[in-house]
Amino acid sequence: MSINKPIYILGPCAAESREQVLLTASQLKDACGEIPFIYRAGAWKPRTSPHTFQGVGEEGLVWLQEVKQRLGLPVATEVATPEHVTKALEAGMDYLWIGARSSANPLAVQAIADAIGDWELVNGNFKGILIKNPVNADAGLWIGNIERLEKTGVPVIAVHRGCNHQPCWAMAHQVRLARPDIPMLLDPSHMSGEAVKVPELMKKIEELGLDGAMVEVHCDPKSALSDNAQQLTPNQVGHTLNPILSRLCLVSLNSPSDGSEELNWLRVEIDELDERLWDTIAARMEVSERIGKWKKAHGVAPLQPERYQQIVEKLKIKNEEVKNKSLSTDFMLHIWELIHKESLRKQE
Ligand code: PEP
Ligand code: MN
Q1: How confident is the model at residue 213 (pLDDT cuts 50, 70, 90)?
Q2: CB-based burial of residue 99 (10 Å sphere; 0-12 exposed, 13-18 middle, 19+ buried)?
Q3: Looking at the CA of 133, which ligand is closest?
Q4: Count of CB atoms within 10 A of residue 59's CB?
Q5: Are the beta carbons of 162 and 169 closer than 8 angstroms?
Q6: Does 212 contact ligand 1 (Cβ within 6 A)?
Q7: What is the dihedral of CA 232, 229, 139, 202, to 10 degrees?
Q8: Would you say 217 and 241 are in contact if contact means Cβ atoms under 8 Å apart?
Q9: CA pair distance 10, 190, nearest whole angstrom
Q10: Is the CB of 99 under 6 A from ligand 1?
Q11: Atom 6 of ligand 1, nearest CA residue
């Protein structure tokens, strides 16, 4: 079974009440107009803390069923156990997704895959299973999960939701290269944790040749019981996202790729590394300033020749390790001298 692209999955983080589920769905339908989408809501919420909202459970499936019947929207929910799979499929869910926390556990994914396989063998009418990247940036684990799930015969869709509210472009690129046959969606909501960042991130879909998006939308985000900072209102979807969603429908139907996606993937990888580089340098300066305070308090001069020499020797050893990665000793020393000079300036 093939799935039409782009694939859009929109709806609240969690099913909270019948009213919230139905109202968000009907407002979203108005906001999207002709743009087809799958409606999402989590019935079971595998939250980090046991002291937060854990989802309404099975009752949420009944409300999703109602959305499907009344508004004719395909529906999706999250599963974390084989029991969830059976209950969700019995309730007529069209798509299921496996969240980032379950995706970090191969045994959990295998148990879910087995339950889907059993269902599919008898019923054969399930439309697709989405697998988010694990909470840790492990491309191998994500690929392994795809392999476990595709044995069910059900279409598998990858969802890049990032780690710790940051994209993990290098991991996603690795998975894209290994499995170009598996559609990949962007989840800008969990990737940023902030509703205002969602529209900018959505631009990456076209730049990277992704296949769609999963976006959290709530009729009243402020009152949401989970992920309230990252959910858009249906009205924001209508005004801000609708033009992007419509454009992607046209792009993916009409324009053959000119191959620029690969360059864009490499560029997001570089941007990600640059960011890490600056964060690391900033963290180093912060420790250096603390050292400066200690030296002042103890009457020690900022430049200690012995320590300086020690670091240069370490750098040479490091250079031996990374030689094949095309970092010359001169280059490493040059960069380090610049950092060290700035560091001394801060300690003066
Ligand atoms: C979700 O989609 O609501 C969710 C919990 O996602 P993740 O597993 O990516 O945190
Ligand atoms: Mn969420």
Answers
A1: very high
A2: buried
A3: 1
A4: 12
A5: no
A6: no
A7: 30
A8: no
A9: 13
A10: yes
A11: 99
Give the span between the Cα atoms of 48 and 43, in whole angstroms.
16
Query: Using CA atoms, how far apart are residues 154 and 116, in angstroms rounded to an integer?
Result: 8
C-alpha to C-alpha distances, 191 to 4, 12, 158, 167, 257, nearest whole angstrom: 24, 15, 14, 6, 26
- pLDDT tens per residue across span 239-275: 999 999 999 998 876 677 788 999 999 999 999 999 9
Between CA 319 and CA 327 the distance in angstroms is 7
pLDDT at position 253, please? 65
The C-alpha atoms of residue 66 and residue 92 are separated, in whole angstroms, by 10
User: Which strand (E) or helix (H) includes residue 38?
Assistant: strand 38-40
Structure tokens at 72: 């004719």
Q: Are 264 and 207 in contact (CB under 8 A)?
A: yes
Residue range 59-90, pLDDT digits in tens:
999 999 999 999 999 999 999 999 999 999 99
Pick the ligand that lies closest to the CA of residue 41.
Answer: 1
> Contact, 29 vs 154, CB < 8 A?
no
DSSP 71-117: H---EEEE--SHHHHHHHHHTT-SEEEE-HHHHT-HHHHHHHHHHHH
Report the SS3 class of residue 209. coil
Element (H, E) at 123: helix 106-123
CB-neighbour burial class of residue 160 (10 A; exposed 0-12, middle 13-18, buried 19+)? buried
pTM over 0.85: yes
Number of H helices, E strands in the chain: 14, 8
- C-beta of 132 in contact with ligand 1 (< 6 A): yes
What is the Cα–Cα distance from 119 to 126, expressed in whole angstroms?
8
- Say yes or no: CB of residue 42 within 6 Å of ligand 1: yes
From the CA of 160, the nearest ligand is: 1
Contact 319, 327 (CB under 8 A): yes
Candidate of 132, 141, 214 to mutate for ligand 1, largest count of ligand atoms within 8 Å of Cβ: 132
On whether the CB atoms of residues 284 and 339 are closer than 8 A, the answer is yes
